[in-house]
Specification:
two-stranded antiparallel ribbon; 169 residues; Immunoglobulin-like; 2 domains; four-stranded antiparallel beta sheet; alpha+beta; 25% strand
Length: 169
């Protein structure tokens, strides 16, 4: 006996999932290709009697040059110059996997400057090989998805051969 039950198709099912998976993978690769690895630089002062503020400079060598000014505006000094302050500044332009050297510059009210450092920091975050791991995991997910689809199709064809009526999801 032939199966005369209407077949229902779900175009957003497996194909929709596959499109979503590859879109997510491509988007993550695009984002990672230009990703940054924020570096938090912290310092503290005991007193700031003549301090107008601070600048933070970055270089890729301990010997300089420290040619990248990290902050756009002068970092404000402590409210109470007698007690100093605790500071942190996040360098949002650092690239992952690179060792940076930071030099702190104190700008005095009379225009003079004092330099401190450098300190070294290796920027963390995602690197190129993380993209490979993500791509590998996506490949495994797709393979498992395809294997599951083949098993499901085999079950359906066996059910149809025995005369059962089954709707296709």
């Amino acid at each position: 006996m032939h199966n005369t039950a209407p077949r229902r198709r779900n175009p957003g099912g497996r194909i929709g999932f596959l499109v979503f998976l590859f879109s997510a993978l491509l988007l993550s690769m695009f984002i990672l290709s230009g990703c940054t690895a924020p570096v938090r630089v912290e310092w503290s002062t005991e007193t700031e009697m003549n301090t107008a503020g601070f600048n933070l400079y970055r270089g890729e060598s301990a010997d300089g040059p420290f040619d990248v000014k990290v902050n756009e505006q002068l970092i404000a000094p402590a409210v109470d110059p007698l007690t100093g302050g605790k500071y942190e500044y996040v360098d949002k332009t650092a690239r992952p996997g690179i060792t940076y050297y930071y030099r702190l510059e104190e700008v005095e009210r009379n225009g003079g400057t004092n330099s401190f450092g450098p300190i070294s920091v290796r920027a963390g975050g995602l690197e190129w090989w993380h993209v490979l791991v993500l791509a590998g995991l996506a490949g495994v997910a797709v393979a498992l998805w395809l294997i599951g689809g083949r098993k499901e199709a085999r079950k359906r064809s066996q059910g149809n051969a025995s005369g059962g009526s089954e709707l296709t999801p």
